[in-house]
Amino acid sequence: MLHGFRPGRAIAGTAALATTLLFAGDAAGSWSTPWFVVFPVVFGGLVPAAGAGLVHYALRRRRFAISASKDGAAAPASTSGSQAIR
Fold first, then answer.
1. Taking each helix axis from N to C terminus, what angle separates 7-28 and 38-71, rounded to the nearest 10 degrees?
2. What range defines the domain where residue 47 resides?
3. Where are the transmembrane segments (predicted)?
């Protein structure tokens, strides 16, 4: 099953990857990263990820509502004679 693009998850994953790379460089001895850097990097990524997720959710709901209103223009199945009314 193919899943759609989720921009909030992409942003959150990028923030987590950046944190991983910062501490991997520190562990390798390339540079020195203080332990408290993890908080602004991760939370700095989660806030825009939440915003992007909310915007994406609102757009998907609106797109679904528009397509659902177009589908309701036809006559219901019960009036076409194909359904038995009890």
1. 160
2. 38-68
3. 37-59
